[in-house]
Amino acid sequence: MSVYDVKEIPKDTAISFVQKYHYSPVMPRLTKHFLGYFLDGSLVGVLTLGWGTQPKHTIKKMFPSLDTKDYYEIGKMCMSDDMPRNSESQMLSQTIKWLKKNKPEMSFLYTMADGIMGKCGYVYQASNFYYGGSYKTQVYMMENGEKLHPRSSKELLKENCTFSNREKLFWMTKDFMQHKGITMVEGLMFRYLYPLNKKAKKLMLRESTMEWTRNYPKEHNLIWYDKTVKPKQQIEQPSFTYQDMKYNKTAISQSSLEEFML
After folding, report:
1. Residue range of the domain that includes 108
2. The pLDDT value given to residue 109
């Protein structure tokens, strides 16, 4: 078993590594720690810790008495392509050790597996995370195959308003999406949680609004729908790609790097 030297690294180094090795190059906004995993002096992995888009809402929904100070969420996690298959599980194990040593006040490590991208969360399952169920989510699949989150569709919504003679829109209209070759894809996100101490584990049983088990989802639980049509139609797994990134680059350029990396 490899033992990594784990230490915080500059965010620019983390960004470069993630953009090279992660399937999605778009970085989370609320990142507090950029951890580098070194083997024989070489950077072989990166994991970021922070929160998602609604930090307080996320923890309050699971644990009404807790707040953002009580948990971190994994933002990005990736390793270089030449690392063995089980390396990410070892990476998670050492992340948990790092948290217990450097953030002893933390109760939970939270993360999600992106079912829309065909991810069930096998690495979290192998690391004994608890599973907290799934929820539906929607993203746009652009004409070039790029995955675009609805939060990043501001400019397209303006264009859609002009196209549809509407004053304001929060979601693209079906006629506009068909005009642009855009598909709205609905899929699942899977919740995972790791208690960092005995008190947190007891809290899972006593207070949480969700049932946490180790009855993990598998590939047969993955499902996708095309919501561009009505009624929505079940489809095969979409083939998202960032090879010719266009829309996410635009979203990033319209905000400062600091806004994306708070």
Report:
1. 5-260
2. 98
Contact call for residues 242 and 146 (beta carbons, < 8 A) = yes
Where b means 16+ CB within 10 Å and e means fewer, 60-90 reads eebbeebebebbbbbbbbbbbeebeeebbbb
Domain count, the chain: 1
Q: What is the token pair recorded at 138?
A: 């929607």
Residue 30: CB atoms within 10 A of its CB come to: 18
Average pLDDT, the chain: 89
Residue 235 forms beta bridges with which residues? 224
Assess whether pLDDT exceeds 90 at residue 244: no
Which CATH number is 183's domain given?
A: 3.40.630.30
Burial class (CB in 10 A: 0-12, 13-18, 19+), 92: buried
Question: Residue 3 has what pLDDT?
Answer: 80
Using DSSP bridges, classify how beta strands 130-141 and 183-195 pair: parallel, antiparallel or unpaired.
antiparallel
